[in-house]
Prior knowledge:
This protein is an alpha+beta fold. The protein is built from eight helices and eleven strands. The radius of gyration is 21 Å and the shape is globular.
Amino acid sequence: xxxxxxxxxxxxxxxxxxxxxxxxxxxxxxxxxxxxxxxxxxxxxxxxxxxxxxxxxxxxxxxxxxxxxxxxxxxxxxxxxxxxxxxxxxxxxxxxxxxxxxxxxxxxxxxxxxxxxxxxxxxxxxxxxxxxxxxxxxxxxxxxxxxxxxxxxxxxxxxxxxxxxxxxxxxxxxxxxxxxxxxxxxxxxxxxxxxxxxxxxxxxxxxxxxxxxxxxxxxxxxxxxxxxxxxxxxxxxxxxxxxxxxxxxxxxxxxxxxxxxxxxxxxxxxxxxxxxxxxxxxxxxxxxxxxxxxxxxxxxxxxxxxxxxxxxxxxxxxxxxxxxxxxxxxxxxxxxxxxxxxxxxxxxxxxxxxxxxxxxxxxxxxxxxxxx
Length: 372
């Protein structure tokens, strides 16, 4: 299914944090149940017995490599306990297929399968140990065109670093991340297909606004839209049911926006998107000032939760790239990496080999929320 910039649909919709795991990081606390060799063997066995899961069956020998090791310790096990408890109290389903609770309780690995002859990446596997003591495996096929295994590994690591910075940066400072975007600027778009967080419609060029105003508004609007993703990750229930956490965050985002509108004598049902069109320079400056106040209000609501161990642990889970693809949009190739909760980042490699972000968006479908 074609997804321009990975972004088919969007939900209608702080302080520096330590990392739970790192690329091939050594285990320095409670050891995982599976060794790397055992995890690779489990992924290999799964691949042999579930060949129907491949979009195209691999030809020839394939290799399996651990590209990320997820540690479990007393802190992660406590977050898992709280997640199960929260799910029970909220009467929502525990999504064991995410393997997040298994990873927090017993650790695990992200494994890349590649074709030996070509070096092309084929599949990603999350491998952990289930409650029954047997290996638990969840496969993630790569999408689109063929991707080099080396590129996939590099891109997953680069994406994890960028997404971690997104979660750790207060809303007021997210505009500083524009240096990670292609050309060092937030992108512009002409229609809904190109729309994303941290982007401005090209129509703003028709106003008397200067480049700095357009860029500032893109950053403020992106921070406003990213809020619900970060808020979901702060919730104790997140590791048990990311979909429920995201839906709750989206609802809270809408309620807080209306609360802000009432407190500032605005129509609580106004449409922020309508402000993009017909802006004059003075009105644009007023809009920038308004969004700055709104982001400050939203930050005050989420920031205390970002200082918790729950956020630290959930954030690390949310940097694991699982859905990876290479596709063409408007005649140009771009790479796509999706992490939970449904956060998509589109990347392009520059002429000198550097990676640059070209788009960020929530990929959650409203139908996902039916699976709570």
